[in-house]
Amino acid sequence: MDLSSINWLLLLASLMVAATPILLAGIGELVTERAGVLNLGVEGMMITGAICGFAVATQTGSATLGYLAAALGGAAMSMLFGFLTQFLLSNQVATGLALTLFGLGFSALIGQSFVGVQGIRVEDLNLGPLADIPVLGPVLFQHDAMVYISLLLVAGVWLFLTRTRGGLILRAVGENHDAAHALGYKVVRIRLMAIAFGGACAGLGGAYLSLVRVPQWTQGMTAGAGWIALALVVFASWRPWRVLIGAYLFGGLTVLQLNLQAAGLKVPVEYLAMSPYLITIFVLVIISGRSRASIGAPATLGQSFHATT
Amino acid sequence: MTDLLTLQGLTKAYPGVVANDDVSFSIGRGEVHALLGENGAGKSTLVKMIYGLVKPDTGTMILNGTPYTPAEPRAARAAGVAMVFQHFSLFEALTVAENVGLGMENPPKPTQLSREIREVSHAYGLPLDPRRMVGDLSAGERQRVEIVRCLLQDPKLLIMDEPTSVLTPQEVEILFATLNKLKAEGTSILYISHKLEEIRALCDGATILRRGKVVGSCNPRERSASELAELMVGQALHRPERSRSAPGKVVLQVAGLTSEHVEEFGTRLQNVGFEVRAGEILGIGGVAGNGQDELLSALSGETLGSSETVRFQGNAVGHLGPNARRALGMLSAPEERLGHAAAPDMTLVENAVLSGWHRRKLAEGGFVRWGKAKDFAEEIIADFDVRTPGPFVAARALSGGNLQKFVIGREVLQDPSVLVVNQPTWGVDAAAAASIRQALLDLAAQGAAVIVISQDLDEILEVSDRFAALNAGKLSAPRSTEGLTMEQIGLMLGGAHDMDVADTDEAEDIRETYEEGRL
Questions:
Q1: How distant is the Cα of A36 from the closest Cα of chain B, in angstroms?
Q2: Which of A179, A308, B43, B244 has the least CB density, counted as fewest CB within 10 Å?
Q3: What is the H or E stretch that residue B254 is in?
Q4: What's residue A26's pLDDT?
Q5: Which ranges constitute the DSSP H helices of B288-369?
Q6: Domains in chain B and their CATH numbers?
């Protein structure tokens, strides 16, 4: 193995790119879960976003329209989940798993004619002099716009959840839906909005894969990124900034794995592929002894709400 | 003086049941009006209509001389109607200030809101720290959060649904002082309770509901509690009979019981110890959440401890699980009928097997003997007057009182030497409660040792020979219930928690800032 063959600067630079899909999907799922809904269909929504984004972007040549279509596609998938779980009161775990399977199959179907199609080129954002700073420039300031949008999204979600009344209501719904209902808040409506936000974010994350990261379409190209996003939310103990830390950590592991592979590491790369989940389990074991409030899990996570009155 | 709120012919029907049938009455300004009735009489539906959670099918409401049709709780709050819920509508993982803010239409900025919470809570003798997490508060303090939330909106009508069921007697007194203060300021209060003495002490008028209909109204001060009870139930109440006899030898000894692990927002038991003799009922009182659940699971075997902490007939059993204890004759009926004491979606027969398979030999060689199981379930249904279409009905389909009778009967008919019950009549109507209490008394008369854990102090005084108070995980020394007064019980329960802070420096500071602000 030759570690000197790894360009560490390039590795750090690609870290932010590698982390962006799971960061987007993770921050969306965080909002969904803070509203008390466990949507395990992130993988399905991501891949739907990937194909919607890729299809529209290659047809129109516009990455912006591609992202828009991806967000809409992901949100549409999530609304399927929302309708089943919020109105028909189906089990959230089973419905979420079904959504993942459905998304994988459905995206393969509509993606048939896009296999092998050349993806569009997404330009890096021109940040002027910032990009010319040695070391920091290439690592932090030579990326496409979505990398920075994802960071703004994390900040926005944090502000929303901790500083606004809307965020307080959303947390209240996730904490005790019966009490929120008794106070006159529309539990189902709020949850549907949170689910849609989660779906749109997952769609964006998927599109980032097919437009920037890989830029092409292959069946099942998300390859478990949705599951990493789900693990990320738990790892972050439902706090926005920790999602960012987790995403860059898990993203870094992915990049490292590729680089080590290239450097001819003897240890099977599967160990690194496993590591996000192992880390999440490790974090869960560490925090399991603590109280629920300090873990941060919403009290009604995964429970169906049905107004009895 | 015109009335504040007039209800005319309110009717609300659900599939299969008419919850409210042509209900009419009115509440005057500054009046404390009681709404009396058994469980299922339609009290909750009625107040939900007033609070805008439920829309009436027919009928009108007039508030302040104008028609009042709240489409949702927001509209009700805007019209000056506030409600303190029976089961707290609070969010445990949020702070007091956040909880209060959620119940307001246009909450002020957080710092301003915290100030207002301090001011109002002190002005009404209900001190609260706005920064504390609600999950860490006692039941009495949680109720204060609800009341303060209402008071900040300056309500004209305050609805209180069973407010005293979770309070110690001293906390009840403080609550009544607050309510009387509100009344003096002209606020009307609609007070729902089935505690008749409270209503006689507090209320100016009363409307009695039975099966959704108004069956009478009266001035509760002029009626005796038993007259009110008969109006509520529609028949003379059967009081449980008991005969005090000399207790036998000690059957159950508990010593040094301390919980090692507790659930989130649970209470740790601290060095709990007591003895129960054959033929005796030990009542353990205290507001729920002070270690009741932990005590029950330590006695039932759900949580295991070191073997010496629990001794049954002289043998150490603290390390044995529920089935092993059942086999020996130590039985228990937990609170929470649906989910803990019974599996909601399983039939009564299946639920009977789950608890009684060993002692009633309902399973042999790994096979369930359904014939015997059905006989056992039918025996419970017959002996305890469980109203059900048949033994193969899901537990969830029974009313609370009937399922509770089944759950208690299932244990009683297994001929226990020790029976531990937690909140045996919680949410059960008076007639069913009386028959459950009678069954417990009869069981003790047959020589079993019974432990009744309950937050209903009247119930404990009615059935138990000795009383011990469980407060913050600590058990007081048991005392004979003969000659025990409510006040003594209240002191045993730890009295009111940090109630007398009205004269502390902090309160003084707040008063000063408040007055400066007004100048």
A1: 13
A2: A308
A3: strand B250-257
A4: 97
A5: 292-300, 322-328, 348-356
A6: 3-233 (3.40.50.300), 250-484 (3.40.50.300)
Amino acid of residue B250: V
d(CA B20, CA B8): 12
Tell me the C-alpha distance between B172 and B188, whole Å: 19
Backbone angles phi, psi at B309, to 5 degrees: -70, -30
pLDDT at residue A170, rounded to an integer: 96
CATH architecture of the domain with range A3-121+138-295: Orthogonal Bundle (1.10)
Q: Which of B53, B91, B96, B111 to mutate to test the interface with A (most CBs of A within 10 A)?
A: B91
Query: Residues B195, B172: contact at Cβ < 8 Å?
Result: no
- Which residue, B32, B14, B67, B6, is CA-closest to B212? B14
Between strands B32-36 and B205-210, the pairing is: parallel
Which of B84, B399, B424, B37 lies closest to B193, judged by CA?
B37
Q: Which residues contact A221 (CB under 8 A, 6 or more apart)?
A: A47, A50, A209, A210, A214
Query: For residue B52, what are the contacts with CB-CB under 8 A and spacing of at least 6?
Result: A184, B70, B71, B72, B73, B74, B75, B76, B81
Q: How confident is the model at residue B499 (pLDDT cuts 50, 70, 90)?
A: very low
Q: Beta-carbon neighbour count of residue B447 at 10 Å?
A: 15
Contact (CB<8Å) A293/B264: yes
List the structure tokens of B357. 């398979």
What is the percent of chain B with per-residue pLDDT over 70, rounded to a whole number? 90
Tokens of B255: 């010593």
Please tell me if residue B262 touches chain A, with a CB cutoff of 8 Å: no
Q: Is B471 helix (H, G, I), strand (E, B) or coil?
A: strand
Which sequence spans correspond to the domains of chain A?
A: 3-121+138-295
- Of A302, A300, A297, A305, whose CA–CA distance to A176 is shortest? A300
Which of A72-86, B93-107, B291-305, B485-499: highest mean pLDDT? A72-86
pLDDT at site B107: 82
Asked if B91 and B134 count as a contact pair (C-beta separation under 8 A), the reply is yes
- Tell me if B19 sits within 8 A of B45, measured CB to CB: yes
Predicted structure pTM score: 0.76
**Nearest by CB: A175 against B45, B74, B93:** B93
- Per-residue pLDDT at B372: 92
pLDDT of residue B448: 92
Q: Which residues of A238-255 are buried (b: 16+ CB within 10 A; e: fewer)?
A: bbbebbbebbbbbbbbbb
How far apart are alpha carbons B158 and A269 in whole angstroms?
Answer: 66
Q: Which residues of chain A from 160 to 179 reach within 8 Å of chain B, CB to CB?
A: 165, 168-169, 171-172, 175-176, 178-179
